[in-house]
Amino acid sequence: MFDLNAVQAAVRESGCDGWLLYDFRGLNVLAQRVVGLAGKKSLLSRRWFYFVPATGEPKKLVHTIEPASLDHLPGSKTTYRRWQELEAGVGALLSGAKKVAMEYSPRNANPYISRVDAGTVELVRSFGCEVVPSGDLIQLFEAVWDADQEKSHFEAAKLCRAAYDVAFAFIADEVKAKGKVMETAVQARILKHFADNGMTTYSPPIVGVGPHSGDPHFDTSPATDMPIEKGSFVLIDLWAKMDRPRAVYADYTRTLFVGDVVPEKYTKVFNVVAAARDAGIKCVKDAFAAKRQLRGWEVDNATRAVIEAAGYGDQYTHRTGHNIGQEVHGNGAHIDGLETRDDRLIIPRTCFSIEPGIYLPEFGVRSEVDVYIDAAGTVHVTGGDLQTEIHRIVV
């Protein structure tokens, strides 16, 4: 539910004169969520604007064929029919404002929040307004979890951790009985575990053997199926949430080897990745213990520095982590100083992954955990015990 007092307090804290929320045909899902447009209302066919000033009454601008589209929100309403009326209406919304937040990112540096087209930004600027990114505002009303969501994450985290025990036992049983088990069979067993425990996921887990584990976004499927057998190195990346409204995801990655002794080539790379993961966790814990502001790119840098120092910088091809919410890749601060420079603050009641990786042609290692900052600023690493060595399956 839209909370005007909370939004205006956040706008004042940001130093803006107001927040201009805008959408056309669902292009700005972030604005939709902030104002509470869902279901059929998200399919509005005409442009709408909602201006929330730092103080005073909000203002709406909607088309005459959809006049009730923002009636659930507080504030005065103006309708437009002609394009000239729309432009004049935007000017009226912004009257007196000099600095306005929108879902915009300079040079598209952060595409996750860059949802407003360049032409609309030009229109707003034509009225003498400076347009600044709304990324930290969006976090407060999109990425922050309530108590039920927090509970759902810890519930999902426990069941996701149990999924590894299920998968490891299944691999051991199948290899002992048949000499091998296919990647897709392990994937199916994990999905059954999710279904049996009231969980859902937007896509199946990754089960990658050998060179497949070296592909960060490998798609486990019958077309590329490989056997897991004695001597196999395997990466399993899984994510799921409880199957109920507004539940949030848990997302983890672990690795295993089928055999008595894990070869040194795997252990060497795993140890570097685990050290990088731990450096990222330490960066977060140290900042919150010191009550110091922390931004997503800083955690990425701390993690990446370990891998670069070990000589594997070119083999670490993705950001360190992503925000987690009702989608596994949520709309809060990402742990990214590589693909983007995410300068959004890491704030309480948000969650994100830390998942460094090293990807070689013959195999790849990733170690992924979730980090949740509670309302008091306490840092929780979820998903059970940290993986400190490659799991062995002795057959």
Polypeptide structure, described:
This protein is an alpha+beta fold and 395 residues long. The protein has 2 domains: 4-142, Creatinase/prolidase N-terminal domain (Creatine Amidinohydrolase, Chain A, domain 1); 145-393, Creatinase/methionine aminopeptidase superfamily (Creatine Amidinohydrolase), CATH 3.90.230.10. It is 33% helix and 22% strand. Strand 11 (233-242) and strand 12 (250-258) form a beta hairpin. Helix 6 packs across helix 7 and helix 8 runs antiparallel to helix 9 (296-309). The longest helix has 32 residues, at 147-178. The radius of gyration is 24 Å and the shape is elongated. The N and C termini lie far apart (55 Å). The mean pLDDT is 97.
Spell out the key features of this protein:
6-stranded mixed sheet, Creatine Amidinohydrolase, Chain A, domain 1, single chain, about 400 residues, 2 domains, Creatine Amidinohydrolase, elongated
Identify the CATH architecture of the largest domain: Alpha-Beta Complex
Report the major sheet: 6 strands, mixed
Overall geometry comes to elongated
Strand content: 15-25%
Distance between the termini: 55 Å
- SSE sequence, one letter per element: HEHEEEHEHEHHEHEEEEEHHEEEEEEE
